[in-house]
């Protein structure tokens, strides 16, 4: 029979060869695991705030052991179960305040939708940049038959035409990743409706609430947890995976070094593909925020009635009644 491990300390073990009593409590049934992690999330949140150097010291990189340990702490906890429960606690507290004070919830809706609109309207300009680069490539390559394009005066930078051509994929990714929630707020996503249009107003809002919490949010959180380690595997070595335990991650500290991915698909092609991994996380973060914004808005519009539909909603003025009608249909 396996010997039972003793516990010491409530949140953190204070004796070698033991585990914390909270960790031992979590080893019971599923409910003990959930509520134990929930309680531990408060400790982890305040501990992280009180000891920022443990996970932010790497920002002033000097290649020291402390820098490497703080970087590994940051990488491990950024996609960990502990971070998920801290996020859940913060979201639950803000939601509880919002359910108590609906004005506060409307404020969160306006802020979250404002972030989506602001970022989307800004990075929609990447479409214009794509067009300008494509015109520049065609004009210079066909008219002047140049193989390299240089931008800037004095301290300009030069890249092969194939680099500029492949960079168009990055600008396209900017639009897809950073304008998705903006399009959602504007009601621009095409939807296939089988039931929604035939039910009552309150049922519609209930469906919206259910979809945002049961489908939208969980998928985004799982994507974050795996996308986080996917990004860091293209930035540092040794590689760290979602299944690695903290002690295994910490043992890699002496060998940690930066190894930013700069390999393109062609010899002179675009070589900053690590940016696509960062964009994935930016996209997921925006989707998570929009899931909460959509849930809060649906709840408030359901509670306040049809008169509240579209309240504080910042929609673009297309300046064309027919285009506005098409947007409403979609």
Distance between the amino and carboxyl termini: 63 Å
- What general outline do the C-alpha atoms trace? flat
How do the strands of the widest beta sheet line up side by side? 1-2
Count the DSSP helices. Answer: 12
N-to-C order of helices and strands? HHHHHHHEEHHEHEHH
Uncertain stretches:
none
Any key phrases for this structure?
mainly alpha; two-stranded antiparallel sheet; two-stranded antiparallel ribbon; 4% strand
Q: What does the model show?
A:
The protein has a domain at 101-329. The protein is mainly alpha-helical. It is built from twelve helices and four strands, in the order αααααααββααβαβαα. The protein has a two-stranded antiparallel sheet. The chain has a two-stranded antiparallel ribbon with strand order 3-4. The radius of gyration is 25 Å and the shape is flat.
Please outline what is shown here.
The chain contains twelve helices and four strands, in the order H-H-H-H-H-H-H-E-E-H-H-E-H-E-H-H. The strands form two sheets. Strands 1-2 form a two-stranded antiparallel sheet. It is mostly helical and 330 residues long.
Question: What topology does this entry show?
Answer:
Elements: H1 21-26, H2 30-50, H3 53-56, H4 65-78, H5 81-100, H6 102-123, H7 126-143, E1 148-151, E2 157-160, H8 161-185, H9 201-232, E3 236-237, H10 246-250, E4 257-258, H11 274-304, H12 321-329
Antiparallel strand pairs: 1-2, 3-4
Helix pairs in contact: 2-5, 5-6, 6-8, 6-11, 7-8, 8-11, 9-11
